[in-house]
Structures are given as structure tokens and as C-alpha cells.
Design goal:
- It is built from one helix and ten strands, in the order βββββββββαβ.
- Strands 1-3-7-6-10 form a five-stranded antiparallel beta sheet, covered by helices on one side. It has a five-stranded mixed beta sheet with strand order 2-9-8-4-5, with no helix packed on it.
- It is mostly beta strands.
- It has a single domain, classed as Immunoglobulin-like (Sandwich).
């Protein structure tokens, strides 16, 4: 049992840059928790993520365990998807990342899934989604095709 307090952080914070049309892939990791959080809640600019919005293309996956990992995927990123994203586990304070959706700009820190080669985070996501279909401790919400 851990003596440290639970802590959440989003991989890549404080800023992530993605190209317009790519997939935003946010990963929230909860560590130092004696029990997995009951949930990991996501917001965009302090508003709840709407999994059932007409926009579609939003997927949330939570893998519970000694270290709990929550994933938020937003397909076909657009300029309105720019902003602050927070993951709020039930057992600790929220973690936040600022996402910049770029329309043609190419900063050095840009992360994108455009092109013929899958990024390591895309491969991890594919493996995680495959495991979600076979593992009872994973939960997945909001799997909607892009409209």
C-alpha cells in the first residue's frame, strides 16, 4: 500500500500541439492510489465532454489497476477543440493540459498522427482498445463514429 497521496497527471502536459484533422490522444495517469478511482471525468474548458454530441468521434477509455490510466480520444480535431482539457479522478485533484489545434503551423513541439507511420501512442491506444474488448476491468464510453 502506498504512503503517498494519489496524484493525476496528463502525459505531455502542459501543452500539446496537433494538426487540424488529426486525432487528439490524451492520457491521464493516476498513481499512488491504494484503490483505483471510481471514475476519471474529462472536461474541455471547464465544460463536461459531451460523448453523445452530434460531432461524434469522441472515445473515453479507463483502465483501472495499481496505476489507473484514462484515455480521451477526439477524432478529426478542429480549431474549436483547442483549449484546456482536464481529467478529474474521483480520488484526487484534476490534471490539466492545453491543446493547440494548428491549421498549417508547424512548431517543433507539434504531435500529429497524420502520415503513413503509426505513432507509439497510436499503437498503445490500439492495443488498449483491443484489450478493452477482452478485459472486465476496462470501461469504455462514447464510441461514436465521426459524423
Amino acid at each position: 500500500m502506498s504512503t503517498a497521496s494519489p496524484r493525476a497527471h496528463i502525459i505531455g502536459s502542459p501543452d500539446m500541439h496537433v494538426d487540424i484533422g488529426s486525432t487528439i490522444n490524451l492520457t491521464c495517469v493516476v498513481t499512488h492510489s491504494s484503490q483505483p478511482p471510481a471514475y476519471v471525468y474529462w472536461t474541455h474548458n471547464d465544460e463536461p465532454i459531451k460523448y453523445d454530441s452530434p460531432r461524434g468521434g469522441i472515445t473515453v477509455l479507463t483502465e483501472r489497476g495499481n496505476t489507473t490510466t484514462g484515455y480521451l480520444l477526439i477524432q478529426a480535431a478542429g480549431v474549436p477543440d483547442t483549449g484546456n482539457y482536464s481529467c478529474s479522478p474521483s480520488n484526487t485533484s484534476a490534471a490539466t493540459i492545453r491543446v493547440h489545434v494548428l491549421n498549417g503551423e508547424t512548431p517543433a513541439a507539434m504531435q500529429t498522427n497524420v502520415g503513413g507511420t503509426a505513432s507509439p501512442s497510436s499503437l498503445l491506444l490500439l492495443l488498449t482498445l483491443t484489450a478493452a474488448l477482452q478485459h472486465p476491468f476496462l470501461t469504455m464510453y462514447g464510441c461514436h463514429p465521426y459524423i
